[in-house]
Structures are given as C-alpha cells and as structure tokens.
Amino acid sequence: MHPIIDCLCDIASALKVAHGVEPAFMRTAEKESALVALAEARSQLDALAARVLAASDDVGEAYGLRDAAAWLAVETRTTRHEARRDLALGRAMDAHPVVASALSAGALRTEQARVVAEAVDALPVHVEEETRWRAEGTLLELAREHDARDLRQIGKRILDVVAPEVGESHEASVLAAEEARADATVELVLVDDGEGRCHGRFVAPSHVGAMFKRHLLALANPARHTEAELRDESGAFKPLRHRLGEAFVEYVERYPTDATPQTAGVNATVVVTMTLEQLEAERGTALLDDGSRMTAGQARRLACEAGIVPVVLGSKSQPLDQGRAARLFTKAQRIALGLRDGGCTARGCETTASGCHAHHDDPWSRGGLTDLANGRLLCPRHHRLAHDSRYAMTVHADNKVTFARRT
C-alpha cells in the first residue's frame, strides 16, 4: 500500500475512535490543547491534500477535464472555487518549498501559507532572487505572531523591510495603479422591483467604502437606540446587516451633506497619517487608521474634503493630555488612541477603532488620569470584561491585553 494511502487509513481509524467521545466532558486545559493540536493537524492535512492535488493532472486527463480540481469538485461535492484554491495552493507549495515545509509541519495555518506565497509572487519581476528568499523568510517568521489578515497587509510592504531602497517606490506604483483601476471601474446600479423595494450594488474606491461604512456603523451603534428599536417584530435582536440597512435609510433621508454622525465621541471620519516629507513627496504614501494605505496625492486631495482628518506628523498638534480636568476623553485624544491602538487592544479582537470605547487602565473614579498613557481602546464586549470583577485583565509588553476568569 502506498505510504500516503496507509497514512490516511490510520487517520480514518483514529478518527473513528474519537468520534464517539463527548468533548463536553474534557477539562478546560484539555480542550485548549485539543483545539491547538486540531488546528495544526488540519494544516498538515491541507498541505498533504494540496500536494496530492497538484500532482494529479493525470486524473483530470483521464476524464477529459482541464485539471484534477474539476474532477475533485464533482466527486466530493466541493465547489469548483474551493477545489481550484486548493490546487493553486499545491502549485504554490511546489514553487515555495520552505512554505510547504512549514505548512506540512503544522507550524503554519493554511490561509497564512496562501498569503505568504501570494505576497512573494506579487513582488516585481526585477526583484532579485535573494531578496525574494529574504521576503519569504521574514513573512514566515512574522507568521508566528500574525494571522493571515495581518500578514496580507504586511506582505504588501515587505520590500520596506528586506529592501527599503525599492520598497517605497514599488508601493507607490502599486497603490497608484489600484487607485486608477478603482476610479475607472466605479459604478452604481439601483433597480426598483415594483413591490416597494429598491435593490442595488455599487463599486467604489476603498477609501469611499471605508468612509461610508464608518457613517453607517455610527448610525447603527446600539448606544443610539432603545432596546425596542434593536429588536424585530418577533422580539429577536436584529442582525447587523439589518441594522446597517436601517442606518442607510436614515442616512439618506435625514442627514445633510455638511453633517456627519458621531460615535464614541469622534466624527465618523477616516484618519490619514503621514510625515510632512511624505505629504510633499511626488511618490509618497500615507497610512489610514484601519491599516490600509494610499498614495500621498490621493491623501492631499482627500484632505480638502469632508470626512477626512489629516494628521501630518511634525505639524502643530492639539493638546492631547488633560489629566484630571475631565473624566471623558476628548475627540483629539480619541483620534490619537485610534492611531496608536488601531482598534480594540484585546488580543485576538478585530474591532476597529470606530467601534471601541476609550477605557481608563487606572479608573478615573480612583484617581486615574484622563490621558493617553492611562487610556486604551476596548470594544464594548471587552470593555465590559475590564470592569467585570470575575475576570482579571493582564496588560502585555506590546500593549495588548488578555482576560482570564479568576479562580
């Protein structure tokens, strides 16, 4: 029997044994170990499946199909999109043996492997092979601390780390191309169905989508609504997509163009940060507070429009610390916290800054100061945990926090 078939038989036998075991009776520590081990085992299985799929062109040929992914999709009732993603991963592993080794060892998650391979493959053709190897190695190191979502953002700027001399110019060119494509493909389609409803779809530049989403999230913020408004006719809580739909209606019907809604003390704006040199540079770039980037030219244009707060480092800034003068953080402090923290500081939480509360590490009621050193952003859920006596909050060296139930 082929070693791979033999391995799969052993896995199937082991799974049969575990199938009848009830995980609810496991101790907390056992569940933690099991969940981590399962994630690693899944990565190893994904790697093996992708490798076999990439080596199975003969299977597709045997059935007159373009590749084995088309056959697998039908045979296993998998979507063709998913099967082709697995095939692409297998081919990427052939081209990136170090990534393949990490995934096969369970040290890398499947989506991380895809992101690392795509980031390296997206480097300009003139980048030397040695630089590509350094970029791949750096991304694999960063994968120990960052998930696929973060790695995708880091991958776009990996040249800044391994080859700073070409990184800035390359990023500016890529962003300029993305912005030109976005401007050229904008569209809006609205169709009335004749039954009192209008359906639509739109394509817009990313910064426009970010601004629009911020406005709607501010309007849909539960803090602005009563308990009854948050529930539907059956008494169940309305899902976010429903509340965003209601926010869109309110946005169109009630809000003038010169007024924007507020949430958590800050206008629903997008904050753009850049140095003075980047602002003046022909091919500079700027950082948005959600982690994405744009060209300096785009930022200069948006700085003249509503909905954008330009924070040019090195220019005269607003006072950010007010000590004991007030209990609540000011708008300037909220913006500064958003730039520093990027969102909820609870480890693993992806809530953006606009959806967070400003929290005093040392409570104001006990003499804590209302300043940046004593403040952090927490989403509503983690903010409740921070004030829940049943949980202990630990602040780590990277300013992230974790919570653990007290024993």
TrEMBL record:
<keyword id="KW-0175">Coiled coil</keyword>
<dbReference type="InterPro" id="IPR003870">
    <property type="entry name" value="DUF222"/>
</dbReference>
<feature type="coiled-coil region">
    <location>
        <begin position="31"/>
        <end position="58"/>
    </location>
</feature>
<dbReference type="InterPro" id="IPR003615">
    <property type="entry name" value="HNH_nuc"/>
</dbReference>
<feature type="domain" description="HNH nuclease">
    <location>
        <begin position="332"/>
        <end position="384"/>
    </location>
</feature>
<protein>
    <recommendedName>
        <fullName>HNH nuclease domain-containing protein</fullName>
    </recommendedName>
</protein>
<dbReference type="Pfam" id="PF02720">
    <property type="entry name" value="DUF222"/>
</dbReference>
